[in-house]
Every structure is written in C-alpha cells, then in structure tokens.
Amino acid sequence: MRFLTALLMALCVAVSHAEKIILIPLDSRPAAGQFALMIGKVAGVEVEMPPYELLGRFTTPGRPDQILEWLRETDLSDVSAVIVSADMVEYGGLIESRLNSVSTEAAISRIKRLSSIVRSHPSTKLYVFSATMRLLPTATKEAEPWRLQLGKYEEAKAKWEMTHNAESGALAKRLRPKLGDEVVAEYENTRKRNLSVQKQLLYMQAKRMFDYLIVGQDDARPYGPHVGETALLKKMVGNLGLGGSVYFCEGVDQHASVLMSRALLDQAKWTPKVRVVYSDENGKYKFNPFESKPIKDSLTDQLLASGAVPAVSDEDYDYTLYLNTPGHRSDRFAEFLSSLKADLDQGFPTAVADIDLAKDGTANPELFEALWDNARIMKLLSYAGWNTAGNTMGTTIPAANVYLMARRINSNPLSREVAQREFLLHRFVNDYAYHKYTRPAAYRMVRERGGATTEEMDSDVYQQVNEFVQQDLAKRLEDFFRDQFLGKRFFAGTTQYAFSGITDIRIFLPWPRAYEVRLEFHLQPQIVNQPTALKN
Which of 352, 375, 408 is the last residue of a domain? Predict the structure, then answer.
C-alpha cells in the first residue's frame, strides 16, 4: 500500500493560515451551516455567520438585504474567504428559491451587491454556490394535496420531450388535468426565473466577480426540467471559457462544507489525492435516489469541487475513501468490510461515506457495526451517511481533506484533534442514531396526533416532539460517547490525551418538523496521568 508518509507522521509544514472565514449559509438547518463551521474548527479557523435570526426558518424566509448590510458592516480585513449561498442572498434561502416571490431583477441586484462588498477587499476570496431547483416542491401542509402529482407530471413531461417515450407522454396527459393552471404556472415560472438568475451568475463569473462557483443540483432524478437547464448552463460555461472556475455537483445542502474545504486547500496550496474503494465496483455505475448522474461521476464532482483529486492506479495517495454503494453483492461487501477494518486497525488514514441509504435515508447497519466494533469509530478521518449520495460524499470528503491539511500547517494540535473527533461523534449520532431510532419514534408521535403531519408541525406538537427528541438523542449521544470515546487515548503533538467527559449539550429541532436536528456539544480532553481536564 502506498500513501504519503509525511501525513502519517503529521509533519507540520509552515504555510499561511486563514484568520477568519465568513459563511452565508443556505438556511438555518445544521447541514447548511453548522457542519461547515465544525469542519473549519478542525483547521483552527474562526467561521462567522450572520445572526441566526436573519437566516429564516422553514417557510419564513431569511432576510437577504439585512444579511448584505451585516456583511457590509463587517470588518473583512482579516477575512481570507467569504462562502455564500446565492439562494440565500437572492431569495432568502432554499425554500424561498422554490417560490416566485422575488423578481429576477431583485435577485440579480442582490448578488451583484454581494460581489461589490467582497471585491472592495482584494485579498478576500469569494466562493459562491447556487442550487438548481429540485423536481418536487417543498413538503408543506399547503402543498401536500398536489406536490407529488406535480413532480410526477413534470418528470413525465420532460421524459416525453427528451425521449418521446409514449408511456411518459400518456402519463403527463393524464396528470395535467388534475393540477390547476395556477399551480403549474407558479412552478414553471419559478424555474424560468431561477435559470435566468443562474445565467447571470455565469456572466458574473466570466467577469471574475467570484473566485469559484458551484452549481448544485437539488434533489433530482434522471429526467426532469433540471436536465435541460443544466445542459444549457454547461454549454454557457464552455462558450464563456469558464472551465475550472465553475463546477456542477449533485446535491446542495453540503456545498458550504465543500467550499470550506476548497477555500482552505486553496490557501494551503495543497491538493490531496484520494484512493477510492467501492463496496462493489458495479455500484459506481448506478444512480442513487434524488440524483441525475451515476455515482462515479457524482463522486468525482464532489472530490474536484472540494479541492481534492482522485488518485490513479499506482499513484501515491493521502487517504482512502471507502464508499459503500447500494445493491452490493454479499461477497464483495465482505471483502470491502475486511479491507476497511484492516486499514483502520493498522492506523492508515481512512474515511467512510455510506451511500447505501435506506428509503428513509438511514445508513447501513452492517457497516455501522463493523465501525463500532474494536472502537474503530475514533480511528476514522471522517464519516457520513445521510439523506443523499451527494450530501454524504460532500460531507465526508471535506472533513477528511481539512483534517489532513490541518496536520500540515501550524495549527493547535489539541484543538485540531478534539475538533476532528467532535465532528466524528456528531456524524455518527446524527446520521445513524437520530435517523435510525429517534426520528422514526418522533414521526410516530406526530402521526398519533390526529390531523398532524410530519411535513410541518404546529406549535403544540412541535413542543412535545422537541422535548422527546432532546431526551432521547441526549441519551444516545452519551451512550455513543461512553462506548467509543470515553477514556480512549490519542496524541496531540507529542502529548497523549484521553477523553474524560462531554459537556455543553444542546439539542433542538431547528424547523417545525423532525427531519433534521441541531446537536451541539464539546468533548473534554485530559492529559494521560494528569487529573486536570484541559479545555480547547
């Protein structure tokens, strides 16, 4: 096995180091901002976001004009990069971007103002990501009667237009009368506006008004209006000569983390090489749910956008990414687990992305058990297994990149090692424990209350479910910590530590639904053989 021994020995390379990064996230969900903040902490970077109340909450949009004013008043002299969700600045967040409530002109004016504010500080780089609208409208009480039918109609209509498939054409004709003209017009006009704004983003990129632009595909399928929209945007990228400065990726929630990695790797002038091991080689050619391209292409997109590159055969690499794909053959999966366990037990740098997700978005329990056994969880570089393949890969890869980069620079070793393991524990409790156990129980609570829906809870149901989630997930967090982290030893520089406790636990549902949870805590390290716990 070949890998860069400099990384295994954790040699420190003196490079310039980011003082601060500003993040304007997609919305107030943890995946949109908290994950990137925790990844930045691994590198010792202070990540500052707008005041929480400006980010909106579910169908209450964020306040882009106030966010831009906050940014204008912020001292950018020590800010190395600004990472921005275009959808937050243009519309007020991802949910609002699916509604035709903001004009094309207003959206473009806001994004130009953003560029002007950042470009007034030449040493500050600007990284932007934009979401191509997903196939389905947002799941709300109001949209519940027609949203699935509208999605099926738009998918069938697009497939008919692309392939002239008779079955799809017939389905579109059957579905159209069931949908009101107003519903269809609102949806299609919103898509037209968003495409017009994304075209403007490309023109702005051609004028170097941004340093890097990601166009992320929100939840999608192989057929739908997004396919033609993306093809048009890609053609524009070619015509404008923007190759290398614009990248198209599946998913959108993870792109704050992806760009956090890219910004830090750009500054460190380091490009990690990643060896990829699939649970089944056949899996790389499959399409994961909610994605419009094969897994192998989606993976390459996430790697390149993050600032990493896939290692080629017989080439040195910096870490191995074990990718668990859906539908694997049992004998191949057994070999995959055996290799993974061997690498971890020998201390080789290893990350895991589990995209073999059940219909409810939960990770593979057999893989989880292999990582749980022999306390392998704390030996990982990074882990993720949530929602979609793009979300998962775009969380695992940045976390691994940034940790290894942080070992190359003059970062505080104790803060780095603690922050990396905090994110590891966070991912396992969030991605596995919450979605496997707590969320299904929370959904049962909602359904037992007549008239309540899992898409959007009223205040009384929210309060009851939120209290349950706080209690249940806190216990699971403490169980995971006690089994996998308590007393486990690790080195920070030349000093050995062990984790002695977990503090500052805070758990709540950020939106009036139980789909995602906000989980906060801090791990307490202690020098081995010393009675006094150290703080970060």
Answer: 408
The answer to whether residue 535 is domain-embedded is no
Provide the domain limits for residue 474: 413-527
For residue 319 the two structure tokens come to 């870490």
Count of helix runs (H) and strand runs (E) in the chain? 18, 14
Distance CA 433, CA 461 (A): 22
* Nearest in space to 194 (alpha carbons), one of 88, 113, 112, 87: 87
Residue-by-residue pLDDT tens, the chain, 536 positions: 444 433 433 333 334 455 799 999 999 999 999 999 999 999 999 999 999 999 999 999 999 999 999 999 999 999 999 999 999 999 999 999 999 999 999 999 999 999 999 999 999 999 999 999 999 999 888 888 899 999 999 999 999 999 999 999 999 999 999 998 999 999 999 999 999 999 999 999 999 999 999 999 998 788 999 999 999 999 999 999 998 899 999 999 999 999 999 999 999 999 999 999 999 999 999 988 878 789 999 999 999 999 999 999 888 999 999 999 998 999 999 999 999 999 999 999 999 999 998 777 788 999 999 999 999 999 999 999 998 999 999 999 999 999 999 999 878 999 999 999 999 999 999 999 999 999 999 999 999 987 778 889 999 999 999 999 999 999 999 999 999 999 999 999 999 999 999 999 999 999 999 999 999 999 999 999 754 444 44
The answer as to whether 536 is a domain residue is: no
Paired residues of 498 in beta bridges: 489, 526
Last residue of a domain, one of 357, 384, 408: 408
CA distance readout (Å), 359 to 5, 355, 363: 40, 11, 10
Question: What pTM was computed for the model?
Answer: 0.93
Instruction: Examine the domain organization and report whether 304 and 447 are in the same domain.
Output: no
Same domain for 362 and 438?
Answer: no
